[in-house]
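SUBJECT: protein chain
CONTENTS: sequence, structure tokens:
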Amino acid sequence: MCYCMQIVVEFHLTVEAYAAGYAALTYPRPERCPNCGTAGQIEGHGFYWRYPLDVFSRFEIGIKRWYCRACGKTTSLLPSFLLRFRWYLLAVIQSMVVARFETRQSWRQIETTCTAAGAPSNRTLKRWCRSFARQAPAWLAAVQQTLAEFEPAAPGLDPLGAAAGPVAPAPALLDAALQLLAWGKTRWAELADFGRAERLRFLWHWGYGRGLARLI
């Protein structure tokens, strides 16, 4: 796994399509080095490999790298269907988080409905949920700030009654991610095909670009 500077990029591709066609993609070149801030010194530096998992499959993913001639550091472009420091695809992790915090399933129910042949393990899915719960307050605050500025009628901002949505940060963030996506679809036409299943993918791309770092 790579520990260089990373930029999360939305390629609007499934993991299968990306894995099959990564070599032919056009990759955005940073204008400035994210490490040292120098402009005009970025050049291609090949790829490194990640092998993300879903419940039944393992993929081979080429991750584009850029090299800064000024500071000698590399920057990689992480597709938004992947998370930093997690081996499973974001879609798999989201299914566990939603089951726990939104549909309020027990750990036994999650194991039965969301896992296969012991993968991911109960220990792993609990780690994901704990991590999401820890990060949720900061991410929720950032989402609410954006909605308050650009979409003040969003139901998650209503402090009165059931329309206010869940109170705990983790389920509240899942709810707010849908509202953020609805707002985003009014600004970016390329989000037209995104739905509930892509809400954390959009949230991850949106938030990482604003310095929120780890989501799960």
